[in-house]
Amino acid sequence: MNQYDDCWLRYERVGSDKRLDSYQRRCRHAYVAEKSPECGAVRDELRRALSGLLGEDPHFWQHPPTTVDGFLAIGTPDDMAMIAESVPGDDIADLEDGGYLIRSVTWNDADCLVVTAPTDRGLVYGTFHLLRLLGTGEPIDDLDVREEPAYANRLLNQWDTPFHRSVERGYAGESIFDWERLPDLRSRYEDYARLLASVGINGIVLNNVNTTKPQRASANAAFDAFEGWQLLESRRLEDLTGLVSLFRRYGIRPYLSVNFAAPMLVGDLDTADPLDEDVREWWRKKADEIYDLVPDFGGFLVKADSEGQAGPYDYDRDHVDGANAIAQALEPHGGRVWWRAFVYGSHEDRAVQAYDTFEPLDGEFAENVTVQIKNGPIDFQPREPVSTLFGAMPETDLGLELQITQEYTGQGVHATYHLPMWKEIFEFDTHADGEGTPVRSLFRGDGEGVVGVGNVGEDYNWTGHYLAQANLYAFGRAAWDPDRSAEAITREWVRLTFGADEDVVDTVTEILRDSWAACIDYETGGLGLMHMMHNGEEYLENHYYPSPEEWPGYHGASEDGIGVDRTESGSGYVTQYRDPVAERYGSVETCPEELLLFFHHLPWDHELADGTTVVQRLYDNCFAGVEEVERLRNLWHSLEGRVDERRYRHVAERFDEQVAQAERWQDVLTSTVREYSGMPDERGRARDE
Ligand code: GCU
């Protein structure tokens, strides 16, 4: 038996005879370029996949076969004359790195398929695309696919903490990386690389952004176990080389999170002042050492002056000084610093701080620095408005950071699918360049991209909850092509993961589609409140939650009303948006209901557009959220016998827990509302303490 699940790379036998015939004709014989590690990965994948899908091993040729009805050819036009003859060079010349073509062609009277690309990485992606078509039963006799990634960087941030193998905000067991045993490799590393490459992820930051215990008091008491700065020690770097070669086969570049004080922690300097020449020299030597070992090393991710991690402020320097000092060391090697904008603590309203800190620095960062910004101004809440920094730093490379792991959306217990949230973020019009500048149109430079905080661990199912595999899948697919519809991405995942039964596909797609909205309702009341999750549940332990005493700062509740005034007369956060966004959010009349209490403090009996009061809407949404989860659970129950027992039971059990916890969340939230407002639920459901 497998030691872990295959996720969406199941490669089960093709069901339809018609399809099987066509797949066999074009794919049973394969002629694949041989020159690079990526081509090796392509061949291995074909071997695994085709033996499953077609029921027989593919036959590999060293030259184009002339005695068969058809074959599959994979290579660059430079590798193979047959490909150069079949696909005009101009067709691929201008593809972005990673782009590829797949075509059905006739060659020498044989029915062939060609997967070609300007780079070997593109061949890996093209192969996975083709296998996805076979896995979802699509026709391949008339293919003409041209694909290229929307963003140059599609990175995964592991929040894995060496060396005790914990994963911060991880809900799927310990880290899959057995740090102490490196350089020994586990087959799971390769299977992880396959999963990532199959959805187009091209970079991985191997360790957590928190690389030491907080140096200063921090809101997050759970941080005591952090380490990871040691990865810059020479022996640790040497240990990583095998692991990174394995990722290289799949076109995935490695990165490390580093500590700003590394010159003191790893080196023996007595300062980490970014303007100190010895410090800069230390970073240069360290970078030279790394690139000697790993020539395609991607660079460093830095969390500085944030939640107790060291940073340039320790030396009265700013973020530009800090980021540029490290960047100058990586620059000769083509490496990049991803510098996080997640800073808060000095402003009464934390939403204001990132923009206040970073926007004035626009244009001052080195060319190889990317400022990595969380999607919203707070911290991966179930729903937040989009960060004001997007579109506000035109002279700086920016990255969008999303959270794949479900820190605030039910962790390993709740079925909460993040793609609808990410779609909302991508579609948000920043008006940065006038109307029609959605978030998805940003991050298009070579040093920009989309980053996801991973959700994988050692559990059999990788992600703690079988349905959470969909979040990893969707992240990669959306970062490759943010224009692809949520429905298409979701159905693709369900088909690959649960098979072709249309009822199963429809039902699981519906569950995923509606799960996020339900979570927002039972967790926040659906009007833009945040950081109000019920404390004390076991599964919420690995999670930052403000204690009830801190809640008022987040929900702004008092006897007279609820919400936080972030308009000009309040914290002023709204003024950081461009017009007309600032105007829309700034006015109670035009602010969308789902964010109303994020931007405004309103009387409890303020009437919403349909005449319902704020207090009543909070009650209604909280109860509706619970009812919705019950409906989703029933939908899952309708699949009994149609999904294998192991996965059926796992998800069914979690749904029971989710319903119970949603009820408790609803209960705590509605009784808090009841207590502050003194106004009962007019439908008599909310508990009166
Ligand atoms: C949140 C989260 C932390 C994490 C931090 C970050 O505060 O709870 O676990 O370290 O974000 O993004 O750095």
Automatic annotation (TrEMBL):
Transmembrane segments: none annotated. Residues 136-462 form the Glycosyl hydrolase family 67 catalytic domain. Belongs to the glycosyl hydrolase 67 family. GO terms for molecular function: alpha-glucuronidase activity; xylan alpha-1,2-glucuronosidase activity. It holds the Pfam family Glyco_hydro_67N. InterPro entries: A-glucoronidase_C_sf (IPR037054), GH (IPR017853), Glyco_hydro_67_aGlcAse_N (IPR005154), Glyco_hydro_67_C (IPR011099), Glyco_hydro_67_cat (IPR011100), Hex-like_dom2 (IPR029018). Residues 463-685 form the Glycosyl hydrolase family 67 C-terminal domain. GO terms for cellular component: extracellular region. GO terms for biological process: xylan catabolic process. Keywords: Carbohydrate metabolism, Glycosidase, Hydrolase, Polysaccharide degradation, Xylan degradation. The keyword Membrane does not apply. The lineage of its organism: Archaea, Methanobacteriati, Methanobacteriota, Stenosarchaea group, Halobacteria. Residues 7-130 form the Alpha glucuronidase N-terminal domain. This is Alpha-glucuronidase.
